Amino acid sequence: HRHLLGIENLSQADITAILDLADTFADLNRQADKHADALAGLTQINMFFENSTRTQASFEIAGKRLGADVMNMAMQASSIKKGETLIDTAMTLNAMHPDLLVVRHPQSGAVDLLAQKVNCAVLNAGDGRHEHPTQALLDALTIRRAKGRLHRLSVAICGDIAHSRVARSNIMLLGKMENRIRLIAPPTLMPAGIGDFGVEVFDNMEEGLRDVDVVMMLRLQKERMDGGFIPSEREYYHRYGLDADKLAHAKPDAIVMHPGPMNRGVEIDGTLADDINRSVIQDQVEMGVAVRMAAMDLLARNLRARVLQPV
Ligand code: CP
Description:
Elements: H1 12-28, E1 43-48, H2 54-65, E2 69-73, H3 86-94, E3 100-105, H4 110-115, E4 121-127, H5 133-147, E5 154-158, H6 165-176, E6 180-184, E7 200-202, H7 205-208, E8 214-217, H8 233-240, H9 244-247, E9 255-257, H10 270-273, H11 281-308
Parallel strand pairs: 1-2, 1-3, 3-4, 5-6, 5-8, 6-7, 8-9
Helix pairs in contact: 1-5, 1-11, 2-11, 5-6, 5-11
The structure holds phosphoric acid mono(formamide)ester.
EC number: 2.1.3.2
Catalytic activity: carbamoyl phosphate + L-aspartate = N-carbamoyl-L-aspartate + phosphate + H(+)
Family: Belongs to the aspartate/ornithine carbamoyltransferase superfamily. ATCase family.
């Protein structure tokens, strides 16, 4: 592959290859010396048009650990503010010969569009409600390490499915790896027709969580609700917030996940989120660096292979 734009374009073999390489980087990241030279000589530009803590920090750390020259565009201070378009901004940076462009954008499809205009490899760091492929890959690696496998698991994805690129990418990845997926959400936050994608749909946590291996919680993404239905946080927590009582319906060894940023007391009980016997939320963050190292390493190998191809 030339770019990493979504899980949609990846095969089961692609996913396994990324996770296997990420496993080796996860080991490296626990060493005193965390450096490798897979991206030495390459230039990585991070363009985040939407707020981020985990994704931006981990892409920057990943690039630096692999020896790339990493530049973070401060989008708030860029000429976007003077009316320059996304494509003109990308073309301008493209003229400086970057090798890897990491892009987050509030509009679904913006990253795909940008990828058609530049010569370098583009990685989607989250576009609107469309895809967040490295999030799904880091979730998959976390599940595989915790459960010892990534197939024939029962996974519940709970909360604001309708506005979630994390849910979309995870539904595709977990489906490709042959897991059972249960979606739990209030009807107003469940996309219409989602049942056609081979998932089971519930509007009740107790039923939806029954005997699952993995519980994945999602934040209410108010920034994408366009002034429409925004549930009362109190009521939402009562019905859909994950606490020990609701988790008791899952398997006794079920793990609890959350992509972050989390709102304690809205979609998840803070004590449960911190319970290292059940919660793998910090493991997800750790695996985020390893997965992003693997994704950029594999794309860089393709870049180098293309440069070496006779014309
Ligand atoms: N999970 C995630 O994408 O977090 P950030 O928005 O902080 O990057």
